[in-house]
Design brief:
Layout: H1 8-19, E1 30-32, H2 33-42, H3 53-63, E2 70-72, H4 73-87, H5 93-104, H6 112-122, H7 145-148, H8 167-173
Antiparallel strand pairs: 1-2
Length: 174
């Protein structure tokens, strides 16, 4: 193997990681169109200028079997061979394919940061309004049952009365 070349086995490992992404029943032997586009986006094969999502979709459709919805690793390789000269214009077919391979090797589907940002936004208590705002103190810590339930005040005083608990002192003075 020449200097700077990438083994097909390394590319196949990345292919398998993307092939099973988002599908619990996937074996990693075949990849659907959605995951093929995801691989192309995450590995920067789609650059928006030379290669677009449309190009990737077309190449995917051309390389899969007529009635199939997935491509095998061999068909995947064929698709990359078609995309490589588009992505790296002015380079030989082999050279552009090697550069494409080097973009793919070692990559995994990127979606790790996506959920963290959403969870952070949903759990930021400073953005809560209405009844939900009452459930947390200033530090964002939950108040527990006090924040959720209307706890009845059975002290015998009217709700907003400021002098509650002062009856005994008034009786003493009299």
């Amino acid at each position: 193997m020449a200097e700077g070349t990438v083994s097909v086995a390394e590319v196949e490992t990345a292919f398998q990681k993307f092939a099973v992404h988002g599908d619990s029943k996937a074996t990693g032997k075949e990849m659907n169109g959605k995951n093929f586009v995801k691989l192309c986006k995450d590995c920067k094969i789609i650059d928006g200028k030379n290669v677009t999502t449309t190009d990737v979709d077309i190449v995917f459709s051309k390389n899969k079997a007529k009635s199939a919805r997935v491509i095998t690793f061999e068909q995947f390789n064929q698709a990359l061979t078609e995309l490589a000269p588009k992505r790296f214009k002015g380079k030989s077919k082999e050279e552009s394919l090697q550069q494409l391979y080097s973009l793919i090797v070692g990559k995994e589907p990127a979606n790790i940061g996506v959920t963290a940002a959403a969870v952070d936004r949903l759990t930021d208590t400073t953005k809560y309004t209405g009844a939900h705002k009452e459930r947390f103190d200033e530090s964002g810590k939950g108040k527990g049952k006090v924040g959720r339930a209307d706890v009845p005040d059975d002290s015998g005083y009217v709700g907003a009365y400021k002098g509650s608990g002062s009856y005994d002192e008034k009786v003493k003075d009299a």
